[in-house]
Write a structure and sequence with these properties.
The chain is mainly alpha-helical. Helices cover 65% and strands 3% of the residues.
């Protein structure tokens, strides 16, 4: 089995990912319940309004800490390389599933890398603004103007984060094999070579095909 497939994610990495996903949905739903009266009914999922207000910031902190686990594991693989810019210029071919002529990329494509760093910025924004508006512990140290700006930025970061996760889910479903990789940890060699050729060469030590030598004369 190991000769036919490639390990993409270890069990620890997959567990970390799904824990972040679970806590994200809990923090997101509780945050939406507090965001607008029309969504306050979502607070019933957490035992009512008071419990939602108590639990939401704690869930946010847990989400950030768990996400840091993913950052420490994957930040190196999300550095941008020269091929990434060329890949973005030819993203129309990728969207049409016509990847001939598209530069080879590493473990993550440029879209995934942009998503990774955007998620990190949103998480940091949510953490910092969340601390400012956390009434039980920290908001007494800040003025009302600062708290109002923090609330606005907190909502904005949450909105961007939710949009990013929707894109993340859609892309994972659209590229067949991505969800399975995060569920079971392994991908086929053909999948790896098609979507992440540089990473495929790295883990299999497979050399890139050499152009034919033209004979002189």
């Amino acid at each position: 089995m190991s000769r036919k497939t490639i390990l993409r994610y270890t069990s620890n990495q997959r567990t970390n990912h799904w824990l972040v996903a679970i806590v994200f949905f809990m923090a997101g739903l509780s945050g939406l319940a507090l965001f607008h009266p029309a969504l306050f009914w979502l607070s019933n999922l957490f035992g009512g309004g008071p419990w939602t207000r108590i639990l939401h910031p704690f869930m946010g902190v847990v989400m950030f800490v768990l996400f840091l686990g993913l950052v420490f594991r994957f930040w190196r693989a999300n550095y941008f390389i020269a091929n990434d810019r060329l890949w973005l210029r030819r993203i129309d071919r990728v969207m049409r599933n016509e990847e001939e002529g598209v530069p080879a990329i590493g473990k993550y494509n440029p879209g995934q890398k942009l998503l990774f760093w955007t998620l990190l910025l949103c998480m940091l924004g949510l953490l910092l603004t969340g601390l400012v508006i956390w009434r039980a512990y920290f908001s007494d140290y800040f003025g009302i103007t600062t708290i109002r700006w923090a609330m606005l930025l907190h909502a904005l970061a949450g909105f961007v984060l939710i949009l990013c996760i929707i894109v993340h889910i859609y892309a994972g479903i659209w590229i067949k094999g991505s969800v399975s990789a995060m569920m079971h940890g392994r991908v086929s060699r053909a999948w790896a070579k098609k979507h992440h050729e540089l990473w495929y060469r790295e883990v299999t030590r497979d050399e890139a095909p050499q152009p034919p030598i033209r004979k002189k004369g």
